[in-house]
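To the wet lab folks,

You asked to see what we're planning to order before we commit. Fair enough. Below is the target structure as tokens, and below that is the sequence we designed to fit it. If anything looks off to you, flag it before the synthesis order goes out.
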């Protein structure tokens, strides 16, 4: 295994990340949210157009995770105005889970946050996403709040907020 995590700089790679996101979301959220909500959220948050807006207008950075030549995961982060760093996306294709790649991804997030001068990293996670919650707890994140977000079309995100102090 030779894992490389690099910032996405160009449109073709962002397009590949969007294609990967579509696949992963339609696998990992089955049983957590409805099929309709998965389609809706992928279009709203992980379509190429949405991702371009996040990068160009909202301060997000995408990082692509490669195992050799295989694009198998991605991360999205955003520095907040205050001393927090937002981990917006942390996704790994199912066949690559359980191999230590997540730890490398989270270590990279912490490095990016430190480099941005931040003192904590926070994220939101669906209350029923048991595996991700276990990974975050194991890494040292703690629950600091919970939030229900209306995302339109009758859908809500029912999340915990987890925070890691750097
Ligand atoms: C979240 C995600 C990136 C984590 O990657 P992963 O490969 O599953 O994580 P790992 O299996 O490497 O686990 C990471 C650590 O948590 C630990 N862990 C995993 N499941 C655990 C559990 N149920 N209980 C305790 N510890 C657990 C692992 O032992 C590992 O610790 P180690 O590195 O010290 O051995 C991956 O599961 C994923 O992409 N899931 C679908 C998308 C998703 O839900 N993303 C998060 C949205 S908020």
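Sequence we intend to order:
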């Amino acid at each position: 295994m030779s894992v490389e995590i690099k910032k996405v700089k160009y449109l073709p790679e962002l397009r590949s990340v969007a294609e990967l996101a579509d696949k992963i979301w339609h696998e990992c959220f089955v049983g957590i949210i409805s099929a309709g909500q998965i389609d809706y959220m992928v279009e709203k948050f992980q379509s190429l157009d949405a991702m371009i807006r996040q990068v160009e207008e909202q301060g997000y950075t995408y990082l692509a995770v490669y195992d050799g030549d295989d694009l198998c995961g991605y991360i999205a982060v955003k520095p907040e105005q205050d001393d927090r760093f937002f981990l917006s996306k942390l996704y790994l294709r199912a066949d690559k889970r359980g191999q230590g790649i997540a730890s490398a991804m989270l270590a990279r997030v912490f490095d990016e946050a430190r480099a941005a001068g931040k003192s904590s990293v926070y994220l939101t996670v669906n209350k029923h996403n048991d595996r991700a919650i276990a990974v975050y707890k194991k890494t040292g994140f703690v629950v600091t709040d919970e939030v229900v977000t209306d995302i339109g079309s009758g859908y809500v995100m029912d999340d915990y907020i987890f925070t890691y102090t750097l």
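Structural context that might help your review: Residues 3-165 form a domain with the Aminopeptidase fold (CATH 3.40.630.30). The longest strand covers residues 142-152.

Thanks,
Computational group
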